Amino acid sequence: MRDPKDVVTIHEKATYELPLYEVSNDGIADIDTFTLRFCKGSKDDPSIPRQRGLFTESLLEACRKYLADNNQGVMATRETSLAITKIEEALLWLGKRAEDRKRRGVQGTYKP
Fold it and tell me: Is residue 73 part of a domain?
């Protein structure tokens, strides 16, 4: 089984190949790969390649929700609670970054 951190960049740092697993009677098996694409491009420069995909915030929110949904009852752990807190912190900082970029009129561009 591949390490879950075995993520491969496959296209201009916006598309990644991740291991896909399955639980069977024999345990966890590495069965395939999953392609994850992030949204990229610039609203004011069509010469920059554009790609449909997820926002980082959407992926983090899905991870946060999954962990919170499973961190219940006898399955609840301090470590999972801390991981949820750190994801929430990451979402907070990304939100502040987006607000700042929107305020400065550079959201959706590659301008600093």
Answer: yes
